[in-house]
Amino acid sequence: MADVLDLAILGLLHESPMHGYELRKQLSTKLGAIRAAISYGSLYPTLRRLQTAGWITEAGETPADDADVPPLTSRRGRVVYKITAEGKERFQDLLAQVGPEAYEDAAFGVHFAFFSRTEVDIRLRILEGRRRKVEERREGFREVLQRAAERLDAYTLELQRHGLDAADREVRWLEELIANERSGRTPPPRGSEGELRPPTPRSTDSAPPLTARPGPDDSAE
């Protein structure tokens, strides 16, 4: 997760200098895939580590706006961070990493957010690796539904179907992106912010309430 957070922070600072609180907001809104991993407890030690490595530096302070400062936070001026030349090189190195960790939910979401700065061959390798990852996940859902459906209660069974549906949608989405990359087409913007985003990874903690589907005995009544 450290490299994922480094990539996210360096990528945002590559766009513009920011203070820590603004960075955290941007990480949460633009890079929702790692939202759960971001906290003041992890962000500021990471900023200090990046600063020690010479990848970011302080660019001064901004006056604190009381309306924009969270509760229990100091009202003194906030340190603004900016990326260094060495940090830009590190950012490019992280973008080019295409090992299995780049296909996981959080890492893939961060890599995808910076695809406009990523070489075509790297984008393709990440997309193809992610597709393999999701196809494996999809097969896992299918196996459960085929082999253990009779041992699952109605809601657990419905959750497995929900996961299978989500995996199917993501595979189709990835195949579309891969086809676009191979043909040289740019994906059309989507979403309320005009931004093409990966599907939200399935989570059993955040799945919507599900209604059990009636079985054969129920429908016969």
Structural commentary:
The protein has 221 residues and is mainly α. It folds into 2 domains: 1-65 and 78-118, Arc Repressor Mutant, subunit A, CATH 1.10.10; 119-206. 54% of the residues lie in helices and 7% in strands. It has 8 helices and 3 strands; from the N terminus they run αβααββααααα. It has helices spanning 2-15, 20-30, 40-52, 85-95, 105-113, 120-147, 154-183, 216-219; strands spanning 18-19, 56-62, 78-83. Strands 1-3-2 form a 3-stranded antiparallel β-sheet. The longest helix is centred in the C-terminal third of the chain and has 30 residues, at 154-183. It is globular, with a radius of gyration of 21 Å. The N and C termini lie far apart (52 Å). It comes from Catellatospora bangladeshensis. InterPro entries: Metal_resp_DNA-bind_regulator, Tscrpt_reg_PadR_N, WH-like_DNA-bd_sf, WH_DNA-bd_sf. Pfam families: PadR (PF03551). Residues 178-221 are annotated as: Disordered. Residues 9-92 form the Transcription regulator PadR N-terminal domain.
